[in-house]
Design a protein that fits this description.
The protein has about 180 residues and is an alpha+beta fold. It has 2 domains: about 5-90, 2-Layer Sandwich (S16 Ribosomal Protein, Chain: A), CATH 3.30.1320; about 90-170. About 65% of the residues lie in helices and about 20% in strands. A hairpin with a 6-residue loop joins strand 3 and strand 4 (about 50).
């Protein structure tokens, strides 16, 4: 029997809470389980996770395969790092220090992402009044440009008429050259 560590959904509609369980790989998602080893709430900002580290480690040592999502959760919590270091024969003090550093790096990364989004939102709010202030002088300049634009077409209109008069004459001459070519053949 192949055992998997995977998520089992519970909670109400649009508010999921998942149990991290050890289950037979052939059983359905919400079917019969062997043991509940933790809980995961994805809607919480950092994805609140409660795990029984001893039982998760036990199942991983006995050959249980975590699904991709559970693997990410276990990695984020430092359980996979601890298991890997333990298999290499590193002392428990070094493992604890490495796991704590790993978890802190992840939490700092999450905090930096949240701060970056917050700062970007504040800059956008701060730029909006500045953009409106810049748009107001452009509106004041626009009527002056319209006046100049209204005068320019009036001056260009006679030039357009002269071009229109010359165009038919050019067409007549073009037609004459075709006639001459036909006669010479």
């Amino acid at each position: 029997m192949m055992v998997k560590l995977r998520l089992r959904r519970r909670g109400r509609k649009r508010l999921p809470v998942y149990d991290i369980v050890a289950a037979d790989s052939r059983s359905p998602r919400d079917g019969r389980i062997i043991e509940k080893v933790g809980q995961y709430s994805p809607l919480v900002t950092s994805g609140a996770t409660m795990l029984n580290r001893e039982r998760v480690t036990h199942w991983l040592k006995t050959g249980a395969q975590p699904t991709d999502t559970v693997r990410n959760i276990l990695s984020r919590e430092g359980i996979l790092l601890a298991l890997q270091m333990e298999s290499k024969g590193v002392s428990s003090e070094e493992i604890t220090a490495a796991v704590d550093a790993h978890v802190m790096r992840f939490r700092n990364r999450e905090a930096v992402k949240a701060n970056t989004k917050k700062v970007a939102a504040e800059e956008t709010v701060a730029e909006a009044p500045a953009a409106e202030a810049e748009a107001a002088p452009e509106v004041a300049e626009a009527p002056a440009e319209e006046t100049v634009a209204a005068e320019a077409p009036a001056e260009e209109a006679p030039v357009a008429e002269e071009t229109a008069v010359e165009a038919p004459a050019a067409e007549e001459n073009a037609g004459d050259s075709n006639d001459e070519e036909k006669e010479s053949e």
